[in-house]
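Data card: per-record layout.
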Amino acid sequence: MVAKLLRTDTGVLILLGALPFWDSLRKRVAAQAAMRGVNAAVVGLLGAALYNPLWTSSVKAPGDFGLALSGFILLTVWRLPALVVVIASALGGVALAFGNW
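The structure for this 101-residue chain is written out next.
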């Protein structure tokens, strides 16, 4: 509990310490380049986390792929709220589990 609190507090302290300098910092070219690099690194880590434990353990059949693809389309193309997509995906998962697809 203490370790979790300290880990969270460290990020908050860094944020609060940099906040007064944020306007001047974001106008610098080097800081913009660093933020783009950090953004790219975070996107890469999120992509790796999506693939390795999540995709490899949950998408095992064509129906699973279709359900994941339909959720992606509902979020990106139709721009439905995430809660609606979660509920629809849960119902689709139940249908896949109890149906013969």
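Known properties of this structure: The CA atoms of residues 10 and 16 lie 10 Å apart. The chain has a mean pLDDT of 89.

See the next section for split statistics.
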